[in-house]
Structures are given as structure tokens and as C-alpha cells.
Design brief:
383 residues; alpha+beta; 5-stranded mixed beta sheet; 19 strands; elongated
Length: 383
């Protein structure tokens, strides 16, 4: 078998689109250019797609490993085709008496399977496997050199439709590239949900604050993949996860903010270094704020709303918020309407102005009386 994968042929076989690994190591003439092209070695800058594992890896070896969902040492390109496109591939296999070495690679590359392994291959092709587990195992292979975190982030953002184009990037080798960082797939939508909490939260300064938004959508344009927010009746850029062939999703927000311009008009923001700055920003923008931690990537974010409409869970007793008599807060509702327990206590969801929103459970009140008192002191600064 050839020592490289014919990704175009495999793509047609499983009804997928390959990823175009366009290279940019050009011969500029006159001896200039990369070391790969200036000596006119034909095809040197094109690279190959490696199977990742050799023909010595047998069908039975892969089957036994996968019984325990273990991809270690078997996470090759062709194994991925069997595991994640098996429904399509299985119908195209030719079951024969035997194939050379019973190689798992040959099952896919030649679409041939020994009859005695038909049941095992059937099970492999029709089972459910975790593609992130596969990525982690493939990254440890000696014959791959892709960035594991970049590959995982693309899959998290674009889902199962990104698997084959991702495999093309993961198993690509080029002597001019020490490390391949998989990028997002053009024409595939970003599906990752962004959640914005209405609950007040502490944060690590500095933070980026913008006017509060609620309606969000992902959209790709010629420059990259952007998160848009409905701002003042129009769509404006709030965040970005990729530009060109650069995957930004694992970058901190502080870095991602530098790339918003390619998406058009952006939601304004200020950098705040403390709560006084945030209060000033509240008055500057004239209303509730969206607060975002600058150090977090797109996956580990905690975005929350700060303003008069922000929510927090509190303890209520004897007509006051908080149990500590030195830290009591007068509510902005009629205390007689609140249902209390045998200890004359209740646990409530309120906004930062002290308005009753709903009841909550005792375990949901995680701020101390002094912290709740401080929140309401900050709330007074918003008036």
C-alpha cells in the first residue's frame, strides 16, 4: 500500500468534502524561496496525508481495542473512517477470503474485508465513538504533528460535519511545517452555544464591558467566523473564533478583540479594572452591561449581566433581606406577601434593586450576608 492517503478518493467513497491544504511555499526565482522549493524538487512543498499507523495494525487488534473505547496506538486515518463513517463505508465493502496481513488500513483503502472478520467490522462501523477521544489519541502518534487543542476546538465549534475535513488536517505532513494547527472549515456553520447569565458574579479584573445584549448569532463572511449581537436594532460583532486559516477560539478574549474589525461594525466595549470602573461604564453606556473576563477562551467563558436587572439569591427573614441584623436590607416589595417557613425565613431571587422575582432553594444562596450587602451597596451607585 502507498505510504499516503488519497483523500480525494476517500472523500468520494464516503460522500464527504476534503479539506484543501493549499500551501504557500513558493519558488520566487533567482534562488529565493523556501528550502523546499528553491532547489526545484517537484512536489516537495505539497505535503502528504499519512495513514498515521502502519499496515501491521490488524483488524482484530483494532476490534479488541475498541471494545474498551480505547484508541491508543490505533487512531489512524483509516480507523477514523471506519468509526465515524462506517454506516456509509460498510455498504461498499467487498467481503473476501483474506487480505494481506488482515490490515485495518486495507479494509478502507481497498474496500476489502476478510469474511471471518465481517462481524467485527460490522460492529466497528455501526458503533458510536467519541471523536474527541480519537483526536487525543491521534495527537500522540509518532506520524502526526497537529495541535491537539486546535483540532478539539474546531470539532466543538462545528460538530460532526467537520470530522472529515479535520482528519485531512490532522494527518497532513509537510517538511516545511513543524506543527499543523487545524482551522475552521469554510462553509460550515459554528454551532457552539454562548450563554449569558443574568446572575451577578464576581470576576477577575481587568474585564471587557459592553452594553447588555441578548440575541446572538454566528456568521461566516469572507474574513472569518464572527459572533454577532443585536445591538441598537442592527447586528454588530461581539466576538470572533477564526480569521482566514487562523483558529482564534483558544485565544484569550484580550487577543480575540484585536480581530473584530473583519466582521464589520462591532459592539462598543470598555476595559474596566475594578468595580468603580464598571459603575462608570454603566453610566457611560446608559444601562445594563455585559461583563466578560479578558483571560478566558471562547469555551471557558462566563459572561454575565451587571445592572439594576441583575439577579441574586438571598435570605429573607423578619421583613428584611439578610439574617445578620447589622447587614439587613430593606426589600423593594411588600414583605407580607412572602411565604415564610416555620423559622419565619424564606429564600428569594431578587434583582439589584431589591424587587422580588421568584423563590429559590436554600442551597442556591451561596453569597454571605456581607457579600449580599456589598452587592446592594454597589447597586445604589447605579441610581
Amino acid at each position: 500500500m502507498a505510504n499516503h492517503v488519497k483523500v480525494q478518493e476517500i472523500a468520494r467513497l464516503i460522500e464527504q468534502e476534503p479539506f484543501d491544504m493549499a500551501w504557500f511555499s513558493f519558488n520566487l526565482g533567482g534562488g529565493w524561496g523556501s528550502r523546499l522549493t528553491k532547489y526545484k524538487k517537484k512536489g516537495a512543498a505539497q505535503g502528504i496525508f499519512t495513514p498515521g499507523i502502519g499496515n501491521e495494525v490488524s483488524i482484530n487488534q483494532v476490534y479488541q481495542k475498541l471494545q474498551n473505547d480505547d484508541f491508543s496506538d490505533i487512531a489512524g486515518f483509516y480507523v477514523a473512517i471506519l468509526c465515524f463513517f462506517g454506516d456509509i463505508l460498510y455498504e461498499k465493502l467487498d467481503f473476501v477470503e483474506k487480505i494481506p496481513k488482515n490490515s485495518i488500513n486495507k479494509v478502507v483503502s481497498a474496500q476489502q474485508c476478510p469474511e471471518k472478520y465481517a462481524e467485527a467490522v460490522d460492529e466497528i462501523c455501526h458503533s458510536n465513538y467519541d471523536f474527541i477521544d480519537f483526536i487525543k489519541a491521534a495527537a500522540k502518534l509518532e506520524k502526526t504533528n497537529f495541535d491537539e487543542n486546535s483540532a478539539i476546538s474546531v470539532y466543538k465549534l462545528q460538530g460532526d460535519d467537520a470530522i472529515y475535513p479535520l482528519l485531512c488536517q490532522m494527518f497532513y505532513q509537510n517538511k516545511g511545517a513543524d506543527r499543523i494547527s487545524p482551522c475552521l472549515i469554510s462553509q460550515l456553520p459554528v454551532q457552539f452555544p454562548i450563554e449569558i447569565s443574568n446572575y451577578l458574579s464576581g470576576c477577575h479584573f481587568p474585564v471587557a464591558v459592553s452594553p447588555a445584549v441578548s440575541e446572538l448569532k454566528w456568521e461566516e463572511n469572507q474574513n472569518g467566523w464572527y459572533l454577532y449581537a443585536n445591538y441598537e436594532g442592527d447586528w454588530a460583532v461581539l466576538d470572533v473564533v477564526g480569521v482566514g486559516r487562523v483558529n482564534l477560539s483558544n485565544y484569550a478574549l484580550a487577543n480575540r478583540l484585536n480581530y473584530l474589525g473583519g466582521g464589520g461594525k462591532s459592539v462598543p466595549y470598555l476595559i474596566c479594572w475594578n468595580w468603580v470602573d464598571i459603575v462608570d461604564a454603566y453610566h457611560y453606556f446608559g444601562g445594563d452591561l455585559l461583563v466578560r473576563d479578558l483571560k478566558n477562551d471562547i469555551f471557558n467563558n462566563y459572561w454575565f449581566i451587571f445592572g439594576k436587572n441583575s439577579l441574586l439569591n438571598v435570605k429573607f427573614r423578619d421583613n428584611y433581606i439578610n439574617f445578620d441584623k447589622n447587614l439587613q436590607i430593606s426589600p423593594n416589595f411588600n414583605p407580607s406577601l412572602i411565604s415564610v417557613d416555620k423559622n419565619r425565613a424564606a429564600y428569594l431571587l431578587v434583582d439589584l434593586e431589591g424587587n422580588f422575582i421568584d423563590y429559590c432553594k436554600k442551597k442556591d444562596v451561596f453569597y454571605s450576608d456581607s457579600e449580599i450587602f456589598d452587592w446592594f451597596e454597589i447597586g445604589k451607585m447605579l441610581k
